[in-house]
Design goal:
Elements lengths: L4 H24 L7 H7 L4 H26 L4 H21 L3 H18 L2 H12 L6 H50 L15 H14 L1 H20 L3 H6 L8 H18 L7 H22 L4 H26 L5 H27 L4 H7 L2 H11 L8
């Protein structure tokens, strides 16, 4: 039986999306995530040493974010998606085989490098393949589902980490995490890729220069880059403080994880609904950001567990807006520099997130966590106002 062109295209889209969802799930289904701080503490590391490891991880990502994007536009993007999980697996293996500060530091460098290799490359590969199949209009819906698969994986890892740790200790949790990374690397080979390195600019430095030149020349590209950072950074930072916000509602510590699952469920729903937001346009995106910002203010200020329902709705809105901002960027950039500029957006997000961490520490040092959450909702209201005013360059 011969497939019609339309049906053949549908089959190829299905293969791409199935691979993407599996890869996104496996990337986040890491049982070490909820317990690696315990491993560091059990090894005898001080709080200062643990904090320095987190800082090293962040610095590695910042330094490699843009160069890795340019590399993805120069060589095979599928190759980088395969190599990234292997570096992460090597880092996790070091942690459990040679638990020490030096091994942890090297592991974080490998993990940061692995994450940087996939940042930009994944979005660029998926968008280009969808565009080739005349399905680029489905990008936001597909990436929203991929993000949802990752969030579900995080929740599943949170649920399984405790029993596995109790059964086999850190060695069992580490072995499971290495295995998942290897499965993610194997899954990367299923990604279709019809772009060749010759489609780029000859070298990664040439690609990097061309990407920045495009951003300088096109105001809409600059606006889309800034919008990604404005939408993604603050709520990504606030996510790290949600346990403290939940505990301040007066619930017992044992109840905190269940209420955190509520917030994660809200973000997952936002991912799944992101595709519907493609029809919102600029005014609709502004309304989404404003609504989510107000929900965060009201939910945080409520001070009771019921207020966390509004926080979950806010995180769902921010997650959907993050996917839509990414889709907006992908539509505005040239194919040959897609991964480069996506990584530039990632770098902007990382730097803005660091700023959000600093602002949170400044506010929360003298006020309740609910106050810090409410104040940090203001940038979303500002961004919404700029979008409504028709500004092409919303600022974080």
């Amino acid at each position: 039986m011969t497939l019609t062109p339309t049906r053949a295209s549908d089959v190829r889209v299905r293969r791409l999306t199935t691979t993407l969802y599996g890869y996104s799930f496996l990337e986040e289904f890491v049982l070490l995530y909820p317990v690696y701080a315990l491993l560091f503490s059990d090894t005898g590391l001080s709080v200062w040493q643990i904090s320095s490891l987190f800082a090293l991880w962040s610095v590695t990502g910042v330094l490699l974010e843009v160069p890795s994007g340019a590399w993805a536009d120069t060589v095979s993007r599928r190759l980088l998606l395969w190599l990234g999980p292997l570096l992460t697996a090597a880092g996790f293996a070091l942690w459990v085989l040679l638990p020490s500060y030096g091994a942890f530091a090297l592991g974080f460098v490998l993990w940061g490098a692995g994450g940087a290799l996939g940042s930009g490359a994944l979005e660029a590969l998926v968008y280009d393949e969808l565009e080739r199949l005349d399905a680029a209009g489905s990008y936001a819906r597909i990436m929203g589902r991929a993000r949802a698969a990752g969030l579900v994986a995080v929740m599943a890892a949170m649920g399984l980490a405790g029993p596995v740790l109790a059964w086999g200790g850190h060695a069992a949790v580490g072995a499971a995490s290495v295995l998942v990374c290897l499965l993610a690397a194997a899954t990367a080979f299923r990604f279709p890729e019809h772009r060749t390195p010759a489609d780029g600019h000859g070298s990664w430095t040439g690609t990097l220069s061309a990407g920045f030149a495009e951003a300088r020349a096109d105001r809409s590209v600059r606006g889309a880059l800034l919008l990604v950072a404005a939408v993604s950074a603050v709520w990504g930072a606030l996510d790290e403080y949600t346990p403290l916000l939940v505990r301040d509602t007066g619930v017992a510590d044992g109840t905190v994880p269940y209420l955190l699952l509520l917030i994660w469920a809200g973000a997952t729903a936002g991912s799944l609904l992101a595709g519907e937001g493609e029809r919102l346009g600029r005014r609709g995106l502004a309304a989404l950001l404003a609504g989510a910002g107000l929900a965060l203010v009201l939910g945080a200020a409520d001070g009771t567990p019921w207020g966390l329902v509004l926080v979950a709705l806010a995180f769902g809105g921010f997650q959907a807006a993050t996917v839509l901002a990414d889709a907006r960027l992908q539509r505005r950039i040239d194919d040959s520099g897609r991964a480069t500029l996506t990584s530039v957006a990632g770098l902007g997000t990382e730097l803005a997130t660091v700023g959000a961490f600093g602002a949170y520490a400044l506010i929360a040092s003298g006020h309740a966590h609910s106050t810090a959450f409410a104040v940090l909702a203001v940038p979303y209201l500002v961004t919404a106002g700029l979008l409504l005013a028709g500004s092409a360059t919303p600022r974080a």
